[in-house]
Amino acid sequence: MDQATLVSPDINAGQEALAALDAAQVKQITALLMVSSEYEDWRLVLSSPSLDQTHPLKAYEKVTEVLRGRFVYTLPPILILPTKDAFIRELRRIFSKTKDVTGRRLGGQTIGNRYISNAYVYRVQ
């Protein structure tokens, strides 16, 4: 199946979401838009120690509460990964010495335990 093309409104929606999470004091956020082998559409991937919950639904509830009603653009589906997820840990290792990753593109590679078809990176912390 063909994946949707990433366009400026998608990137802007992710930036808006990240700004709202920052304003809500969600710290150390890793955020990227990604198409992986698991999903055939773009997902806003988020990870933060403050989103690491014993029950994953609580993390989604927290993000939904912060983001509700804030968007000019349509926000893609959200995927929240724990900070100990192999994918997030590998992203942090890869970009640990990179000062600014905003706008970096990834694709056609496996990172951690996920094959990335295409990705746009906002932040890796």
Which terms would index this structure?
3 helices; alpha+beta; 125 residues; six-stranded mixed β-sheet; 6 strands
List the topology elements.
Elements: H1 8-23, E1 30-36, E2 43-47, H2 56-67, E3 78-80, H3 86-94, E4 105-106, E5 109-111, E6 114-123
Parallel strand pairs: 2-3
Antiparallel strand pairs: 1-2, 1-6, 4-6, 5-6
- Give the tally of β-strands: 6
Gyration radius, in Å: 14 Å
Mean pLDDT: 89
Looking at how many chains there are and whether they match, the oligomeric state comes to single chain
* Percent of residues in beta strands: 15-25%
Number of helices: 3
Distance between the ends: 32 Å
Poorly predicted residue ranges: none
Report on this model:
- It is a single chain.
- Helices cover 30% and strands 24% of the residues.
- It is an alpha+beta fold and 125 residues long.
- It has one domain (8-123).
- Strands 1, 2, 3, 4, 5 and 6 form a 6-stranded mixed beta sheet that branches.
- β1 and β2 form a beta hairpin.
- The longest helix is centred in the N-terminal third of the chain and has 16 residues, at 8-23.
- The radius of gyration is 14 Å and the shape is globular.
Describe the structure concisely for a colleague:
The protein is an alpha+beta fold and 125 residues long. 30% of the residues lie in helices and 24% in strands.
